[in-house]
Amino acid sequence: MKYSAHYNSPVGWLLLEADESAITKVHFMEVEGATTASLSPVLKQGIAELEEYFSGNREVFSVPLKPIGTDFQQKVWKQLLTIPFAKTFSYSQVAAQLGNQKSIRA
Question: How many angstroms separate the CA atoms of 43 and 74, rounded?
């Protein structure tokens, strides 16, 4: 079964999608979403961890993730998970870490 929830974060509205066991997608929304009254356990955990993160009380997430995407997207997301808390990396730096400077265009 597929579940979804809208979350009004400090960086804008997010749409979180999940299955029974993990978060599968997180999207920025261009328009305001409706708050979700009934949430699956994994979405409750994900939103709680986001709230802790944005309030400065969490640096590492433990909610299970199972992102859905192409092989390339999977590689990029795996690389993004290695970025330390409170650090930023440019697209160029991520591309270099992936071993393909031309992937910056993707």
Answer: 21
Q: Which helix (H) or strand (E) holds 28?
A: strand 23-28
Integer Cα distance of 106 and 101 in angstroms: 10
Q: How far is CA 87 from the centre of its chain?
A: 16
User: What are the pLDDT digits (tens) for 51-104?
Assistant: 999 999 999 999 999 999 999 999 999 999 999 988 999 999 999 999 888 888
- Separation of alpha carbons 81 and 83, rounded Å: 6
User: For residues 80 and 73, is the Cβ–Cβ distance under 8 A?
Assistant: no
Q: What's the CA gap between 68 and 25, in Å, rounded?
A: 7
- The rounded distance, in Å, linking the Cα atoms of 82 and 63 is 16
The distance from CA 7 to its chain's CA centroid, rounded to whole angstroms, is 12
Contact between 19 and 3 (Cβ < 8 Å): yes
Is the model's pTM score more than 0.85? Answer: no
